DNA sequence: CTGCATCCGCTTCGATACTG
DNA sequence: CAGTATCGAAGCGGATGCAG
């Protein structure tokens, strides 16, 4: 990408990670260190030359590293540097901002269970007292382990079959709706576990970030808001207006 | 931008704000509501048709609004919606991640004093007990007022000439170096104020976020880090390797 | 003067094919 | 498996024009 050529921390950050696909490459490496082919499979639609160029640029910039895996696997593995791992907060915040965009559901989009880790991190902010609970999530070809507790909620991509208090299995959008507390009459994704665990689970999802509390956290508003008389601050829309077309 | 076509909060957010220039438009509107011409001046290098298209897309997506300013000014003013203002956190976090990229200084880049507000927000995280102090910053054609106190640090673009405890005037990079605590032998930007204020100022900049504490905040690392034997976690580099060229 | 639209050379992207 | 090479299509950057 052509540099913006600005002395600004934000635009210089965008010079590094502002290209198309770049943030998504970082997302995959935040979920797990990956080989080239893993990344290619995890990023449906990326051209192979683009992936190669992004990886090269990110490595030159010091965001990622590649390691030749020696004996048994014999493959090159890409992973984030410490600096690159600092993007974790940024991606989670951006995902949190984008959570309302999940409301329309999957539609024709691609879906991989692993992508839920960001939605989940967005849903359950860092420090809060969550009930102690492990949840196994099986969705769209991936298996995740959510670990809630006093320290917060962590979610990792895991190998299948481990033990957990609760198991949820279903399509990503159903799982997400369940986790975000949209337990209407019928739970959209089947949840299994014993009664005590189910109760703690119910407690957990009642703590999900609802996006209606966010109005207080507003940025600087230099011009007076009284430009329009009788202005009443509107609540954050759960679902922003969708006039643009998706999947062009 | 073509949609990524993924059921993922992050990539759907990028579908909205992932285009080139888009985040920078949001940056300007976070600093202050602006007219078309203001934005065009504040974004050196953007093509006029691109700015128009970005504004249209952002408005359709519900990120910004435009208001016809009626009587005296007779101009259209663009501003963020509440949802759009929710990007504040994201941009500050990204700016914080990009702060090390400011180390090389301005060079041939454009510079506007207003852009310092993000560097400053990145430097002084939200809740901490800062000394009570106001600082007037005059840099690269803009004037800012920094207000520190128990509630945190806020910085706003202001009209020239107001009162403050401290005044800093200089090029953006010198001002930034001063604020980030790089007070070597000679302060790079002239700082004026009475002794008591100067002492509180010295206190303030000693609290600036140094990027060396950030190593603890790491993302999920699914593969064992012991893949490379004798791995010692490297500290976050103050200045990431710069092999890529700027200002293509 | 503000707020764009149009045109054009150039770069980047997307898709497929091909190679060590 | 891990990329490079190629080529049409789309997007960007810069200049210019023009209506309210």
Description:
- Two copies of one chain form a homodimer.
- The relative contact order of chain A is 0.10.
- Residues 213-239 and 242-248 of chain A have low confidence and may be disordered.
- Chain A has a five-stranded mixed sheet with strand order 6-5-4-7-8, with helices on one face. The first copy, chain A, has a three-stranded antiparallel sheet with strand order 1-3-2.
- In chain A, strand 4 and strand 5 (142-149) form a beta hairpin.
- Chain A is built from nine helices and eight strands.
- The first copy, chain A, folds into two domains: 9-90, Winged helix-like DNA-binding domain superfamily/Winged helix DNA-binding domain (Arc Repressor Mutant, subunit A); 111-245, Nonspecific Lipid-transfer Protein, Chain A (2-Layer Sandwich).
- Chain A is α+β, with helices and mostly antiparallel strands.
- The longest helix of chain A is centred in the first third of the chain and has 14 residues, at 48-61.
- Chains A and B meet through helix 1, helix 2, helix 4, strand 3 and helix 5 of A and helix 1, helix 2, helix 4, strand 3 and helix 5 of B.
- The structure holds a DNA duplex (20 and 20 nucleotides).
């Amino acid at each position: 990408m052509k540099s913006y050529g600005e002395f600004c921390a934000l635009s210089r950050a965008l010079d590094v990670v502002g290209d198309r696909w770049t943030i998504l490459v970082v997302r995959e490496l935040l979920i797990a260190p990956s080989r080239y082919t893993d990344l290619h499979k995890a990023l449906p639609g990326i051209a192979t030359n683009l992936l190669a160029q992004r990886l090269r640029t990110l490595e030159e910039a010091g965001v990622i590293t590649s390691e030749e895996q020696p004996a048994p696997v014999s493959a090159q593995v890409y992973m984030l540097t410490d600096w690159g791992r600092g993007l974790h907060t940024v991606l989670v915040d951006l995902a949190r901002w984008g959570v309302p965009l999940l409301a329309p559901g999957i539609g024709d989009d691609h879906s991989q269970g692993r992508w839920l880790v960001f939605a989940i991190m967005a849903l359950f902010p860092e420090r809060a007292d969550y009930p102690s609970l492990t949840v196994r999530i099986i969705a769209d070809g991936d298996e995740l382990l959510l670990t809630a507790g006093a320290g917060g909620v962590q979610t990792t991509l895991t190998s299948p079959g481990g033990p957990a208090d609760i198991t949820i299995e279903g399509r990503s959008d159903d799982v997400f709706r369940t986790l975000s507390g949209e337990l209407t009459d019928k739970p959209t994704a089947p949840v299994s576990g014993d009664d005590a665990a189910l109760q703690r689970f119910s407690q957990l999802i009642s703590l999900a970030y609802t996006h209606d509390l966010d109005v207080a956290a507003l940025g600087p508003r230099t011009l007076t808001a009284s430009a329009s008389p009788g202005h009443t601050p509107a609540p954050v829309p759960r679902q922003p207006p969708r006039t643009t077309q998706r999947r062009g």
